[in-house]
């Protein structure tokens, strides 16, 4: 009550313009006049200060005052360092800044001498500087531009987001899907066609070289009688594997009411046994044990089916070049038992060739002690031209030499031309699919122009934008090429099963009498597969560069002008 009364009296005195009452003196004694204070200052006396009124203390109903924070007394050195500091908080900030600069310095650099924070921050700026420089301290570490490594994770993330199908960009995703399917089918088709063409060529050459000689040697004389002596001389040439004398002629084969024209080739039993294509064919019946003398002949499966012959049946061979009689030349006709039937898988040989022992062929064609030619087989038929001159030198007489390329070269050349043309045509499929990638990416760049502009304003470089859209297009090309390669390889490895399934539904799609082969051959070559894959990837990457370059050149101002 007493404290409240004193406060009320002091308030009333202030309103009345009088000094508050003091317990130590009369009223007005605690407030000296201005003139008296000035006189005392002139005389050097200490001015009188009004006594400090006692602290009345907090009122009973006021909240409890907050306890002041404890402070650590500063040392004389620290006090001298912060003489110019207006506030302890400012000093703490300055010290924290100095410690941060010291930590930012390289580890190998020596520890800097501590400099007062006031000296660091109050140094005058130099000429042309816009920020104060330290006075006796170290300059702050300059800012450097931080770049990202090429094909960083965020670039792949953005590209994958652009490729995902959304409701708004669904049409662009459909175009990307068509491009992927087009590249995959183009690569698969090219691999399959190349494998079939290669397999057809290899099979045809193998069958031709297996049945026909690699090189034919004929005599320039009227009769070829010294064939055994010439055969021994030719066998001495390096690379020559076999030399066999042969007689060949066209006759008519008949059995009851069936007739067909065939080519009779007379060969010795030991020479015929070295023809692996004949002795080890796809399908065979009988044996060559009875192929000698008059005991039997060998023929292809096509001839046997046309005449309805089986092992042991008799076949009649009629030759127009028969015996000379007073009534003219009469045809020669003779019957022979069928001892061996083979199926090579090559229609033109299975339905045309009949093999007869050489001695019987000489009697049948009236060429006793003579032959038509010497069949020469070499180790490497691809380099048959290298054997021509050595054989001519070994013969030491006038002979005629004809290689398999002279007889079948036009067919093999036609196959090579067809293979190259098919490769160029099917490459266009992959090129069309690559153009679909260009159209899809151009539409994607147009649709994402606003996003690209925002990314560019946030600091993304042009190279990063280019790589993002390059990843979008390249991903389509890579996935399509790899999937197409896998599909083509699997198709070629199971082509016989697939052919059987298709023919069971649609009938024969690869007739042997038209194509000359009993099945659809396929030969996968690693070089062809890798070349096709790399070509598809190259076309996809080239097609991606232009849209990605256009996206990198996009000006953010133009893209955001009407946003």
How far apart, in Å, are the first and last alpha carbons?
73 Å
Considering DSSP H and I runs of 4 or more, what fraction of the residues is helical? 40-55%
Overall geometric form: rod-shaped
Q: Strand order across the biggest sheet? A: 2-3-8-5-7-6
Poorly predicted spans: 18-32, 74-79, 81-86, 115-138
Q: What structural category characterises the helix and strand content?
A: alpha+beta
> Tally the helices: what do you get?
21
Strand composition percent = 5-15%
**Taking Cα atoms only, what radius of gyration do you get, to the nearest Å?**
54 Å
**Number of E strands:** 10
Question: How many discrete structural domains?
Answer: 3
The major beta sheet can be summarized as: 6 strands, mixed, barrel
Q: What is the arithmetic mean of pLDDT?
A: 75
Task: Write a structural description.
It is a single chain. By secondary structure, the chain is α+β, with helices and mostly antiparallel strands. It folds into 3 domains: 82-140, no CATH class; 154-202 and 413-559, no CATH class; 221-397, no CATH class. The chain is built from 21 helices and 10 strands. A hairpin with a 2-residue loop joins strand 2 (240-255) and strand 3 (258-267). The longest helix is centred in the C-terminal third of the chain and has 44 residues, at 404-447. The protein is rod-shaped, with a radius of gyration of 54 Å. Mean pLDDT is 75; it is low at 18-32, 74-79, 81-86 and 115-138.
């Amino acid at each position: 009550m007493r404290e409240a009364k004193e406060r009320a009296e002091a308030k009333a005195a202030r309103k009345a313009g009088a000094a508050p009452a003091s317990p130590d003196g009369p009223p007005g004694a605690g407030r000296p006049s201005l003139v008296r204070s000035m006189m005392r200052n002139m005389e050097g006396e200490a001015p009188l200060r009004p006594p400090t009124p006692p602290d009345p203390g907090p009122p009973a109903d006021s909240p409890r005052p907050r306890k002041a924070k404890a402070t650590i007394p500063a040392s004389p050195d620290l006090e001298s360092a912060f003489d110019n500091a207006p506030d302890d908080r400012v000093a703490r900030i300055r010290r924290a800044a100095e410690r941060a600069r010291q930590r930012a310095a390289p580890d190998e650099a020596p520890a800097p001498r501590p400099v007062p924070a006031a000296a660091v921050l109050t140094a005058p700026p130099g000429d042309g500087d816009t920020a104060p420089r330290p006075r006796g301290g170290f300059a702050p570490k300059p800012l450097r531009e931080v770049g990202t490594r090429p094909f960083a994770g965020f670039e792949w993330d953005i590209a994958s987001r652009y490729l995902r199908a959304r409701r708004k960009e669904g049409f662009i995703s459909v175009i990307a899907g068509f491009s992927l399917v087009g590249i995959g089918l183009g690569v698969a088709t090219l691999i399959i066609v190349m494998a079939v063409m290669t397999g057809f060529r290899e099979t045809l050459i193998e069958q031709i070289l297996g049945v026909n000689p690699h090189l034919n040697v004929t005599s320039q004389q009227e009769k070829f009688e010294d064939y055994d002596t010439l055969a021994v001389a030719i066998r001495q040439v390096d690379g020559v594997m076999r030399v066999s004398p042969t007689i060949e002629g066209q006759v008519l084969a008949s059995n009851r009411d069936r007739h067909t024209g065939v080519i009779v080739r007379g060969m010795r039993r030991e020479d015929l046994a070295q023809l692996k294509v004949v002795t080890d064919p796809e399908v065979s019946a009988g044996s060559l044990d009875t192929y000698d003398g008059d005991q039997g002949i060998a023929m292809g499966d096509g001839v046997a089916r046309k005449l309805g012959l089986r092992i042991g049946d008799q076949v009649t061979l009629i030759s127009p070049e028969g015996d000379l009689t007073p009534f003219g030349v009469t045809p020669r006709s003779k019957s022979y038992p069928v001892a061996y039937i083979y199926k090579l898988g090559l229609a033109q040989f299975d339905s045309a060739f009949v093999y007869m022992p050489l001695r019987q062929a000489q009697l049948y064609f009236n060429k006793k002690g003579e032959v038509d030619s010497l069949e020469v087989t070499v180790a490497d038929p691809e380099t048959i031209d290298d054997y021509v001159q050595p054989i001519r030198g070994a013969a030491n007489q006038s002979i005629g030499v004809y290689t398999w390329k002279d007889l079948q070269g036009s067919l093999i050349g036609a196959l090579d031309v067809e293979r190259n043309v098919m490769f160029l045509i099917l490459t266009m499929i992959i090129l069309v699919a690559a153009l679909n990638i260009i159209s899809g990416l151009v539409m994607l760049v147009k649709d994402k122009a606003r996003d690209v502009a925002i990314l560019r304003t946030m600091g993304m470089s042009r190279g990063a934008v280019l790589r993002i859209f390059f990843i979008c297009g390249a991903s389509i090309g890579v996935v399509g090429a790899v999937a197409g390669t896998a599909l083509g390889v699997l198709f070629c490895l199971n082509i016989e099963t697939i052919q059987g399934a298709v023919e069971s539904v649609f009938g024969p799609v690869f007739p042997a009498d038209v194509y000359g082969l009993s099945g659809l051959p396929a030969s996968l070559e690693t070089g062809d597969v890798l070349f096709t894959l790399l070509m598809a990837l190259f076309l996809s990457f080239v097609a991606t560069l232009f849209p990605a370059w256009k996206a990198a050149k996009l000006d953010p101002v133009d893209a955001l002008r009407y946003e």
